Amino acid sequence: MLDQGAPPQNRTATVPLSAAARLMRRKPVERLVAEGGQGEGGALRRSLGLWQLTMISIGATLGTGIFVVLGEAVPKAGPAVTLSFVIAGLTALFSALSYAELAGTIPVAGSSYSYAYATMGELIAWVCGWCLVLEYGVSVAAVAVGWGEYLNELLKGTIGVTIPAALSAPPGDGGVFNLPALIVVLLAMVFLMGGAKESARANTIMVCVKIAALVMFCAIGVQGFRSGNYSHFMPLGMSGVSAAGATLFFSYIGFDAASTAGEEAKNAQRDLPRAIMLSLVIVTALYVLVAAVAVGAKPWQRFNDSEAALAQIMRDVTGQSFWGTLLAFCAVIAIASVVLTVLYGQTRILFAMSRDGLVPKVFSRVHPRSGAPRANTVIVSLFCGVLAAAIPLGQLADATSIGTLFAFALVNVAVVVLRRTRPHMHRSFRVPLSPVLPAVGLLFCVWMMGSLSTVTWVVFGGWMAVGLVFYFVYGYRRSRLAAPSVPSEPTAPSAPSEK
């Protein structure tokens, strides 16, 4: 739909495009929305309401940083890790505002990939989508590694045995193959094969369990609180706080998972912005509270990069193995929900990219009975499962953070671009003080990226190089917008103006 008064030359695109223009070709918002849900041989089903969408966001977010990465972040920041959570949360908040506006305006499965396609062109969209593949796919593997740690804690507390290190840790961490990490990814795959509604139901139950587990931890952990543990609040300086914040940003990547469900939401324009903001507020409050209790109950110097840090604190405070075992049980369920929902987001990103012709068609093939992209789910699950079984957690978490921050930075730019190019489009949510807040969100993302290690940047650069090679070899020519008959600008009447 065109804005009122759009120039006539924008109504069709019959003139051949130059190579540079093809890289910047944009997919009209109206076409993105019109194609919503359609895949190869079938369509996704709209079955998710506000409650399910919020639970998807919380399920993909809550638990990752607390259950898994906290043990790595505390040695970097000391007691100021609580401040690191706040900084990471603020970075996420500014980007969440931009996500909320775009999710309500362009309610499709591609998340920030689709937003970039509509505003900044195909090449930038591909870069964003490639970052999302890193964000979602690698984070599934990273969380799955942490799941194995808590599974061992549970087995030790119940039957007194653990999975041998050779089968419960990846190479480089003292093992050969992380079998538990592969298992949890395959279990999530089974749920996703049944369809979005069934997966959302299972996720809701698991989210309730994880919230109850964290509340229980705070109630018991506060009994071991020692104010002396905060006597030197920032022992490693602001650089340590920002470094921990960059790592902990990994904990917030899931809030945008609801935006990947845009084509399976019953009322996407109304519910997506609400689900994104509501989930972020709940998650940030719980993160800061649990981190404060954890550091108060255990001196920061004694955090030793354990992915099962909370279970260990429970045992130390109570002097009993029961509570630590119970928390480990809850964590096994909680972290499984993160794997489930983030894996869901990854499959929907690739679904959208496949529908646009940028990746093979198999990723947009929909099963007619379940309404789920089953082939996509199997391929992604096997890739993530093998990655989880072979790569150490720390390397995965930082690689995920940089891909996430880059994608979020593009979303902050996209919301400003769409405001200027399509000012009269209906928006169910608007970022306040735009373009100031999106600019702040962009600066936060750049700052956090600068806090990551050189090795992480090298890995990111290599990932981007591989992605660009794939795009120019495959996606550039196979893009559906490459066909001369495909309009590159909107052709329908204008969307209603804001009232």
Offer a concise description of the structure:
This protein is mainly α and 499 residues long.
Describe this structure in words.
With 499 residues, this protein is mainly α. It has one domain (17-482): Amino acid/polyamine transporter I. Helices cover 65% and strands 1% of the residues. It has a two-stranded antiparallel sheet. A hairpin with a 2-residue loop joins strand 1 and strand 2 (42-43). Helix 4 (64-77) packs antiparallel against helix 11 (237-248), helix 7 runs antiparallel to helix 14 and helix 10 runs parallel beside helix 12. The longest helix is centred in the N-terminal third of the chain and has 37 residues, at 122-158. It is globular and about 65 Å long. It starts with 18 loop residues before the first helix and ends in a 21-residue tail after the last helix. 57% of the residues are buried. Mean pLDDT is 81; it is low at 1-15 and 485-499.
What is the string of SSEs from the N terminus onward? Answer: HHEEHHHHHHHHHHHHHHHH
Report the oligomer. single chain
The global form is globular
Number of strand elements = 2
Mean pLDDT score: 81
Give the radius of gyration: 22 Å
Classification by helices and strands: mainly alpha
Which regions contain 5 or more consecutive residues with pLDDT less than 50?
1-15, 485-499
The strands making up the biggest β-sheet line up spatially as 1-2
Helical segment tally? Answer: 18
In CATH, what is the homologous superfamily?
Answer: Amino acid/polyamine transporter I
Q: Any idea of the CATH class?
A: Mainly Alpha
Fraction in beta strands? under 5%
Distance linking N and C termini: 17 Å
